[in-house]
Amino acid sequence: WIRRAQLGDEVAFAWLVRRHEMRAYRIARGLLPNEEDARDVAQEAFLRVFRSIERFDFGYAFTTWLHRIVTNLAIDHLRKRRVVARGGALDDDESQAPELIDEGVEDPSAGVIREETVSEVRECLEALAPHFRSVMVLRELEGLACAEIAEIVGATNVTVRWRLHRGRKLFQEEWERRQRSLKGNENAVEDSANTRSLGSVKDVA
Q1: Which of 58, 74, 140, 175 is 20–30 Å from 194 (CA)?
Q2: Taking the complete model, does pTM exceed 0.70, yes or no?
């Protein structure tokens, strides 16, 4: 199919898009905060594939090439958003800002509770820097091997493993912080309700 697409066969290229578009979108959605941006990035990725497919190197897997394009485009998008939001330049080292998702946390149930949990997971991952988010999405959501992730993100296998280790730790810390905050808010609401109830009792007395 790739060789046919290289010869200008539009049907072959359309087949490649259909075969890989959902995974490309999932990777983009894992890295980006909303569905519209993810769709735009996935679409741009296939446009780049279309323009460059004649130069495709068969020494690599097509999926690795595509996922690298999607990941790079998504990270570029995140960096631009952060520059606009902050009104300044971005240091390469600026790694402690929001950006990443993982679904390595089991949803407690279906329906609304499941949606709320997925939303909380997404928010926690958005508190991570892009280089942590990218490896976690590729590993935890897409199930890729560290060696393949290393090729996609342009890092060594050791670096990918370190980023996964560090990213999971930061994710866990953020998750626990949010749970404590949520519990504190619930306790505050309960205390306030109890105080009002006591006031009512005293009024009656």
Answers
A1: 175
A2: no
